[in-house]
Design goal:
By secondary structure, the protein is of the alpha/beta class. It folds into 2 domains: 198 residues, DHBP synthase, CATH 3.90.870; 86 residues, Threonylcarbamoyl-AMP synthase, C-terminal domain (Rossmann fold, 3-Layer(aba) Sandwich), CATH 3.40.50.11030. The chain is built from 10 helices and 14 strands. The strands form 2 sheets. A 10-stranded mixed β-sheet has the order 1-8-2-3-7-4-6-5-9-10, with helices on both faces. Strands 11-14-12-13 form a 4-stranded parallel β-sheet. The longest helix has 16 residues. The protein is globular and about 60 Å long. The chain starts with a strand and ends with a helix. 49% of the residues are buried. Bound molecules: threonylcarbamoyladenylate and magnesium ion.
Length: 322
C-alpha cells in the first residue's frame, strides 16, 4: 500500500482536477473517482479495477444544476425522485449529452448519475467542481469497500489518494433506476428501498434475469451474475435446515442472532435483532472478515425480500456464483 489516506478535501479535489484517481467515502460504499469528462483519467479507473470496458460508470455531482450539461433532459419522475431522495443512495439512468465520454457509458446512449449524501463526498465534488465518474473502489468482481482500509488493501498501489470518511453508513451500493423509457425500470436493487421509490412515483418494473438474461445484459451491462465474491466458497442456506459434515470449518454470516452456533468456526451477526438497514451497514465488512477467517466454506442466511433485504439478497446471490 503506497498511497496516502487522509481527510484533505482540497488536496483530493486538486488531484481529480489534474486527472488523478481519488478513492472517496460515500454513504453507500467507497468510490474510485476520476474526472468524468477526461477519458484518460477514466481509462485509469478501468485499469486500476481491471474492469471490463463494457461496464459503464456512475457519474457523481454535487448539485442538480450540474446535470444540465450531462443529460438531455430530466423527466418529471426524475425530478420528483431527486427532490425526495438526493443527496442519497439512488442512481438514475437518463439520456446522455455528447459531452459525456463513451468510455464512461460503455457506448450507451444513457448515463447513470447520482448525488451522494456523504458530507465529505459532497465537499469533494463541490471543491473539484467537475462531474466525477466513480465505480465502487474494489477490484472488479470482488467485495465492495466500506472503509478506507478496505480500499488501501485492495487498490492502494493504483490510486493517488484515499479520502477517509469513516465506515459507510448505508453499506450497499445505490439503487440504479432507469428513467428513459415509459415505465421506470429497476436495474439494481440497492441502498434506497424499492418501496420508498414506489411511494413517490408509483410502480417500478423489475426485469426478471432468469426469464430474459439478454435483456438484463442490454439494460445494465455491468450486472454480471458473479460479483461481490469472497475467495471462500459461499452458499446461501437457512441454518435450521443445515447438515454440517464433521471436520469442515464453516463460517456463518447470520442476519440476526442465531440460537445455536456450535457448528461454526467463525460467526458474523449482521444485526442482533434482525434490522435490515443495520445488516446492510455491516454486510461487506463482515463478509471480508469471514473470507479472512480461514474457513472452508461460508454459509449465508437469506434475508427477507423487502426493504434493503432485496439488495442484500442480490449481493448474496452474486457472491455465491461459482
Ligand atoms: O453506491 C454506488 O452506486 C457506488 C458509489 C461509489 O456511488 N458506485 C457503484 O458503482 O456501485 P459500480 O460501478 O460498482 O456500479 C455501477 C452500476 C453497474 O451495475 C452499471 O452497470 C450500472 O451502474 N450503470 C452505469 N451506467 C449505466 C447506464 N448508462 N445504463 C445502465 N446501467 C448503468
Ligand atoms: Mg461495484
Amino acid at each position: 500500500m503506497t498511497c496516502s489516506i487522509g481527510t484533505d478535501v482540497q488536496h483530493a479535489a486538486a488531484i481529480l482536477r489534474d486527472g488523478g484517481l481519488v478513492a472517496f467515502a460515500t454513504e453507500t460504499v467507497y468510490g474510485l473517482g476520476a474526472d468524468a469528462l477526461n477519458p484518460q483519467s477514466v481509462a485509469r479507473v478501468f485499469e486500476a479495477k481491471q474492469r471490463p470496458k463494457f461496464d459503464p460508470l456512475i457519474v457523481h455531482v454535487a448539485e442538480l444544476a450540474q446535470l444540465d450539461s450531462l443529460v438531455k433532459q430530466v423527466p418529471p419522475m426524475a425530478e420528483q425522485l431527486a427532490a425526495a431522495f438526493w443527496p442519497g443512495p439512488l442512481t438514475m439512468v437518463l439520456e446522455k449529452e455528447s459531452i459525456v465520454p463513451d468510455l464512461v457509458t460503455a457506448g450507451l446512449t444513457t448515463v447513470a448519475v447520482r448525488i451522494p449524501a456523504h458530507p465529505l463526498a459532497l465537499d469533494l465534488l463541490r471543491k473539484a467542481n467537475i462531474p466525477v465518474a466513480a465505480p465502487s473502489a474494489n477490484p472488479f468482481g470482488r467485495i465492495s469497500p466500506t472503509t478506507a482500509a478496505h480500499v488501501a488493501e485492495q487498490l492502494g498501489d493504483e490510486i493517488d489518494y484515499i479520502l477517509d470518511g469513516g465506515p459507510s453508513q448505508v453499506g450497499v451500493e445505490s439503487t440504479v433506476l432507469q428513467l428513459t423509457a415509459d415505465a421506470p425500470l429497476l436495474l439494481r436493487p440497492g441502498g434506497l428501498a424499492l418501496e420508498d421509490i414506489e411511494a413517490v412515483i408509483g410502480p417500478v418494473s423489475i426485469p426478471n434475469p432468469d426469464a430474459r438474461p439478454e435483456l438484463t445484459a442490454q439494460h445494465s451491462p455491468g450486472r454480471l451474475p458473479k460479483h461481490y465474491a469472497p475467495r471462500t466458497p459461499l452458499v446461501i442456506q437457512n441454518i435450521d435446515s443445515m447438515d454440517v459434515k464433521a471436520g469442515t470449518r464453516i463460517g456463518l454470516l447470520a442476519f440476526s442472532t442465531p440460537s445455536d452456533v456450535s457448528d461454526f468456526t467463525a460467526v458474523e451477526v449482521l444485526s442482533a435483532d434482525g434490522n435490515l438497514n443495520e445488516a446492510a451497514t455491516h454486510f461487506f465488512a463482515a463478509l471480508r472478515r469471514l473470507d479472512a477467517a480461514g474457513v472452508d466454506q461460508i454459509i449465508a442466511e437469506p434475508f427477507p425480500d423487502e426493504g434493503l433485504g432485496r439488495a442484500l439478497n442480490d449481493r448474496l446471490k452474486r457472491a455465491a456464483q461459482k
